[in-house]
Amino acid sequence: MAEQxxxxxxxxxxxxxxxxxxxxxxxxxQQIQKxxxxxKITWVLGKVEHRLLQDLPGVEFIIFDKSKGxxxxxxxxxxxxxxxxxxxxxxxxxxxxxxxxxxxxxxxRIGFDKVRAKEGQWLFTNxxxxxxxxxxxxxxxxxxxxxxxxxxxxxxxxxPHGEQDxxxxxxxxxxxxxxxxxxxxxxxxxxxxxxxxAQVADYLTTLGYQVVLCGGPAPLEIELAKAITKHCKQPPLxxxxxxxxxxxxxxxxxxxxxxxxDTGPAHMAVTVNTPVIGLxxxxxxxxxxxxxxxxNVVSVYQQAIEQQQGKPLAQIPFGTRAKGELMHLISxxxxxxxIDKLLQIN
Length: 346
Prior knowledge:
Elements: E1 10-14, H1 19-35, E2 40-45, H2 47-53, E3 59-63, H3 70-79, E4 85-90, H4 95-101, E5 106-111, E6 127-128, H5 137-146, H6 163-172, E7 178-181, H7 194-206, E8 210-213, H8 219-231, E9 237-238, H9 245-253, E10 258-261, H10 264-271, E11 276-280, H11 285-288, E12 298-299, H12 301-309, H13 332-342
Parallel strand pairs: 1-2, 1-4, 2-3, 4-5, 5-6, 7-8, 7-10, 8-9, 10-11, 11-12
Helix pairs in contact: 1-5, 1-10, 6-9, 7-8
């Protein structure tokens, strides 16, 4: 364990994006708060992520809007004027985040170890977390808590959402048993086929579940949901683009299970203890899979990456991404088998 910080009073976290990653970071933040109950925490993050986390107990948020370009940096500099933090946890390797870190006054500046400090992040810090062998992203984040001298434990979450978000579920879904398909990732290549999703929706319907589609308002997500619905024998309830992030969290929390590729809602579901069947081809699910439910993953990653690299997985650097159109390698029968296992169907 790293050095102790017995007089730690103020902490700044720099993790701008994405939804899945900030969900991972919440687990770390709440372990820090447990160890340092009086600590003042300021978190610099993106405006979309703020919509999900804005009511997180004991945390002040400062929004960094990358779309504003240099004006975003100027606004951050203004907001950081006359502040001073004991520690900065610099938890994002992108160069834009490192530039933002220059405007955050902190005595101790902790970043990733040199193996993971891409894009020169190590130039912007004066301490590093421990070196880890093949960590899941969440475990990599917990290393920042250990760098503060905290003995970390298995992650758990207290996610902010309220009665109005639960009321949304009651109004739009009711009390019936339902399963969620969140079909779209931020990059189209990570999405499974519309026919595959429709087959899963129809299968879940035969098992007695109302099927709910959820996702964000991006045109790609809306069009994919429409295409899935056209292929379904029994149309699912389509909530894609019709929820806030907090309403979506409530939808995920009350579901029996979630089927999703490598996308933010999959990780949101983990934070509210809803089982996730993750669909993976491009990234290693041991690094980016739904943390508590990696045993449920349907993955063709090993097959794809070994074919592309021409060597066994054990000889390929951890975290190497597979390229190209690969999600079609996942079959309906593979997903059905995981559904049956999860629901204990013989």
